Amino acid sequence: MIDTIFIGLSLGSVLLLVALGLAITYGAMGVINMAHGEMVMIGAYTAVLTSLYLGFGLIAAMPVAFLVTALLGLAIEKLVVRRLYGRLLDTLLATWGVAILIQQAVRLSFGLAFFGITVAGLGPGLQNVSLPEWLGGTFSLAGSQISVYRSFIILVSVALAALTWGLMYRTSFGMQLRAIMRNPQMAAACGIDTARINALAFAYGSGLAGVAGVLMAGFKTVFPDMGTPMVVDGFLVVVMGGVGSLIGSILSSAILGQINGLTAAVSNDIIARAIVFAVVIAVIIWRPKGLFSYKGR
Amino acid sequence: MLTLEKVDSFYGRSHILHGLDLAVPGGEITAIVGRNGTGKTTLLKTIMGLTDRIGGRIVLDGRELSAEPTHKRARAGIAYVPQGRQIIPDFTIRENIVMGGFATTGRGRPRSGGIPPLVPKLFPYLMQNLDRPGGVLSGGQQQQLAIARALAAEPSVLLLDEPTEGIQPNIVEEIQNIVVRLNAEEGLTIVLVEQNVAFARSAGHHFAMLEKGRAVASGPIATLTDELIHRHIAV
Q: Is residue A244 one of the residues assigned to a domain?
């Protein structure tokens, strides 16, 4: 039983890292970033490539993946998203296009496939990352065998969620970002450079998704389409938790991860997914603005 | 000195201000009067860069601001107290005030990042409640908070949009006194949008009368005659 709960918690943890970025960008900018799942995928490929070419372990790959995906996110914001603020449907389409572009870039080894060059670690095939020895095994807790790696995922996610909370509530950057989430016009009138803060927030959210990708690479196969379902799951978390609420995102990713893990344990993944959707639909019928919605006066 | 030359302003395709000229002398109060819907609020938003598109020139002390984004205008020394206050309800009173201080970035000295020294003097109530959320305050207290937030920007020009609108009568006079004091004691240049002609007359040094997005009369406050008011404001 405890091992099942741990599986649910680790699923929820990865989900949380993906959803935090979405919650921030959707909350502050009203942008639905369909390319967010591709940040997960790029993060996972960063783990594959750094281990293949540089001999990096999973832990060393995390900061690299954070940087790579944060810079990629920054580029997407500057080149595409920035030009489409306030046009929700257009950003949805444009970022979806960007997502397809990134997927194909990986699948075609950044175009090298056209010249008959194959790059190990890229291309349409499946990739794997091996876990270091000390993360591989299990330990026993109250009579159950718990995967060390699952606990590691939970620890990393909790640490990053705490870091994000500190960033949002204890720094000047976070205060400016929260002000933009609540009232972008007034924030600008108070001298806050909304374009700059938005770009940084976008980059930070993308970086978190990249780290989530590294974590996923440790227990799932890595392939070019792996990010697509993550965007959907991420938005389920954001919608259920309430837009712009950090606590809401944390709680709803924990709930959804747990439902997913428990149902999958007694039946299978397909049923688990159906139940997750059913729960989210029930929640937004009951509370259309999510569990923790922001109440204006 | 803040000057607007032939300023046009738009929301989407609606053309709100038409070739508006306005001179706001430094260190004095300029009252903007006119009926509802004549563009008074839009005028302030235009100065702040919050409308969709503008034409013409906006110049503050020789610096052209027309093409600058809103945050640069705030950093240039223009602070805005909007209609409806626009306090952030789930920010504490302290956070709401400190938020205004971001406008002091890039002025060649470190941001104080705290409560401006004027606030305890003018608004003792806010000081006693710094850690309560802004949303629990009454309308009048929120107005004080919005003024405190603007002061944190250490501005040279203050834009006030109907500071006494919708406020309980016993606080109206207090707010009016604060507006006058900020000008007289701190030397702030104030653009005051005001429906209350009596207060506009008593506080203002200059006035501009708007009608249908144009300035139809302006000058020293003494020239704001009953005849003008009768023609442009009284129904």
A: no
State how far the Cα of B74 lies from the Cα of B191, in Å rounded to an integer: 15
Q: What is the pLDDT of residues B131-149, one digit of tens each?
A: 999 999 999 999 999 999 9
Interface of B with A in 150-169 (CB under 8 A): 153
Instruction: Count structural domains, chain A.
Output: 1
A276 is a domain residue = no
Domain of A97 in residue numbering reads as 2-109+138-224
Kindly report which listed range (A20-24, B102-106, B178-182) carries the lowest average pLDDT score.
B102-106
Across the interface, whether the CB atoms of B102 and A191 are under 8 A apart is answered yes
Residue A236 counted as domain residue:
no
In DSSP terms, B81 is beta-bridged to B160
Domain count, chain B: 1
Q: Binning pLDDT at 50, 70 and 90, where does residue A294 land? A: low
Residue ranges making up the domain that contains B116 = 2-232
CA distance, residue A180 to nearest chain B CA (Å): 10
The token pair at A164 is: 């994000």
pLDDT digits (tens, 9 = 90+) for A225-253: 999 989 998 989 988 988 778 888 899 99
